[in-house]
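Quick look at the format.
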Amino acid sequence: MNGERYALTVRSSFSAAHRLPEYEGNCERLHGHNWQVEITVESEALDSRGMALDFRVMKSALNEILSRLDHKYLNEVPPFDGRNPSSENIAHHIFEEMEGKIPSPVRLSRVTVWESEDAWAEYSRPRR
């Protein structure tokens, strides 16, 4: 390896309602967000086209995942019917769903979920 690393990022969004049980404050009550979701992949090499991964592949996979959350009450959507639908847990869930959709040797690096323009959560895993 020559030490090069390429990072690609795409962003999409979904709208949904949720509530945070056991939270002391307004977020314990039903409310909604227009979430922005960003995924970043990494690669140490480019293919014969000079690309690490086609952005369309990333966007399509992300939008497929987000379509299952869009305009839903997240507390009733698996896995959030058994796990608090916090921004942190949403980022973790999207990472797990997305990870299997990224072809090797490209690697999913992180998922960032904004619940507002000034508040976000990020999930990543160390390289294996």
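Next, a different chain entirely:
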Amino acid sequence: MAQHARTTELLGVDFLPLGKAPQIEQEQAQAQPAMEVEAKPVEHPEFLPNAPKPATPSPNAASLPPAIDLASLRAISDAQPDAQSRLDALRECYEQDAPHKHFNTGFTNIVFGEGAADADLMFVGEAPGEQEDLTGRPFVGRAGQLLEKMIVAMGYSRETVYICNVLKTRPPNNATPTSEEARLCAPYLLEQIRIIQPKAIVTLGLPASHLLLGTTSPMRALRGRWHAFPPPAAAQGIISDHEADGFPSIEVMPTYHPAYLLRSYTEDNRRKVWSDLQMVIERLKGDSSA
């Protein structure tokens, strides 16, 4: 139960349903703290139901090597003629460095990311699942099908956005990434962001949100409002002050992971996520008309 509770928290959930009557659940939803930024009822796409992710033990941090130097990745990327060539070179670096060899993983394919190299909108999840591992593509399982519905409802397609994860290989039993696993893989995610330079990033669940924003706040305090990337110098982030100079200023909208929506298929949860995505739509529309 403790493992399940921890994993559920990292998906962006700050409570566990205990089988209370719908009337009690409705009263509790109405009593949410002000920071939840409850959305007005709106039409939203239909979202579908799924299963929880068990967690696995963390590796011994003392035995792990330092993460690859972000400056060296930048130098390799910048030597390429265009954004797609930079992403291809970055993937080659990842395959050679293979940070996943240092932690517990049994994978079939590297799932590096896919989409437009010049996308205005980027989605960042936590790690590949079973179907992603088999195909080598991010978000193609049940959670991925739900994410694609969300993307289409926003007026985009998989081909016009960029989708990736913090980890590039599947953890055993779809376990939530540990902080050390995220640390080793973070430079590659950061360089993906620098190459693509999206106007907005949607982080799906707490692992991606915590990593990019340098925070440990719960999802209820993060979703429903914009955050800055790179994070402020005071945040306990993964980017040093001098490294942050190489990044454009990007706005981040954290929201619940599609896997959580599949497991907690309620009107209230769907409305919250759709409200977050509507804020992204409005911001990107404003940028394109400016």
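DSSP finds twelve helices and six strands in the chain.

See the schema section for token definitions.
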